[in-house]
Amino acid sequence: MDIAEKIEKLKRIYEEFEEKVREFKKEAVCQKGCADCCKQMATIDCTTLEAFVIYNKINAFADPLKSQTKKKLKKEIHKRTTKSHTTCPFLTKKDSCLIYEARPFSCRWVYSLKKCNGKSPTIHRVVFEEAKSTIRKIQQLDNTGYSGHITFILQLFEKESFTEIYLTGGFNPQKLQKILSLYHILPNLKKV
């Protein structure tokens, strides 16, 4: 399966999840500009497939937005490696998401039944369980890829050699062992 087919399948996985949890999310209090999860949690994990979609979205931005976003991501890497608290690097000053249409599943499934007010969201147990199942499906789809924090996974695509291997279905975690270990990135599924 080529990358375009995988991206289409990823979209269908997102849609299937939304269909399954629609009834549970009807009472959600979340709305545009809330951004509590983006500020408090900021643990935005994704797969390489999701990051590839986001990477392409960033590269499609016009300058100066593209260069500002890349600069912000580099700062985010430094903050994360020094364990500083960070908000989502894609959160705008108006508390909206810069990559909303391309956001990873870790953002898509989170909602709250109560106002968060700086606390964790209140999520129905069924949605939580369905989210875990959906994450496994995404990782199976991206079986030659990796999972980890969005800023670290996006950084992999800055290396042309990684991008080439990934897009051709190659898988070489030994070659990336240092960066995988440093940034706590894990291979999705494929055994070497």
UniProtKB/TrEMBL annotation:
The record's annotation in Pfam families points to: CxxCxxCC
Query: InterPro entries, alphabetically?
Result: Puta_zinc/iron-chelating_dom (IPR005358)
Official protein name in the record: Protein belonging to Uncharacterized protein family UPF0153
